[in-house]
Amino acid sequence: MVTAAAVLLLLGAQAGPVHAAKGFRPAPWGDLFGVGSPRREPRGERLRGSVRRAAVPLPRPRPDDAPAAETATRTGPAAAEPQAPQAGKPAEQAAPATAPSPPPAPQASACRQALTEAIAIAPSIPDIHGAGGCGGEDLVRLEAIVLPDQRRVAVKPAAILRCAMASELADWIRTDIAPLAVSLGSTISDLDNFDSFECRGRNRIVGARLSEHGRANALDVRALKLANGRSISLTDRTVPRAVRETVLHSVCARFSTVLGPSSDWYHEDHIHLDLMERRNNYRICQWDVLDPLPQIAPLLPAIRPDDAPPREVAAKSDGAKPDNAKPEAAAPAEAAKQDKAEPEPAKPATKKPATKKRR
Prior knowledge:
single chain, 359 residues, ten-stranded mixed β-sheet, two-stranded antiparallel ribbon, 8 helices, 28% helix, elongated
């Protein structure tokens, strides 16, 4: 018995240094609430834990000039978090959470800000992004152009264009075409839109380069209609040449591309206008102001006049002509034939015997 007790004491004495060498220390929260652990701790560890509990700092007293507690909670980070409903109150009475604010609207371009309703009725439409670069941004639907005297020039049908193209068209109608209509004794009322935005190749050829119509940067104009009912077709040869030349000079000074009659076979009945950007600001103006076609003689014979002689008399007068009347051109030909004919040889003269005269 004595030997067994000595062995146990020896093992217990060696266990303390082993734990100390391994850095064994109890968890700091083991006796946080004063509830002791059932296992025994070394004396040094118990003293160290008691010192740590005594050194926990307490919050400072609130200063007098600090904001109120409610204001601090509102301005603090916890103000953004929704508060849980209080106990005893239904969930419907709880304050609703604030909805997220919508994203800010994109700022309008300088062209869109300048194209007001005092210049044109052109509401904005969403951007179009099609295949092959078709479409564009900053698009409008040009419905009418407002003249300086507040009268409107309807665009029929409404044209889908870029804002820059719509602005240039509006200024062209207001500055150049409106005074031209006044000089003709009327006012302009309609703009005949033959084609505007259309996702296609040039001249509608499959595989061709994208047309400016596909970029909403072109307009085909066919005619200008006046308030008195007159329609001025820009490719009609019967329209006065001076009027068509005035329109020609005005569009070629404003637009980078102008195509009309004699440019190709695709623009014989309308005028193509666009604002295509090229190197060195290169421009194309191909529009021949053609003269009226010459008058062609009728295919059917003219009506016989009343004072013409009867057909029977006319037939007799034609048949009464002598047959020996030959054209003067035939006389030299017959004379040439007679000159070419060989002369016949002369026959020797025969002498008759002399006869005596009877008395």
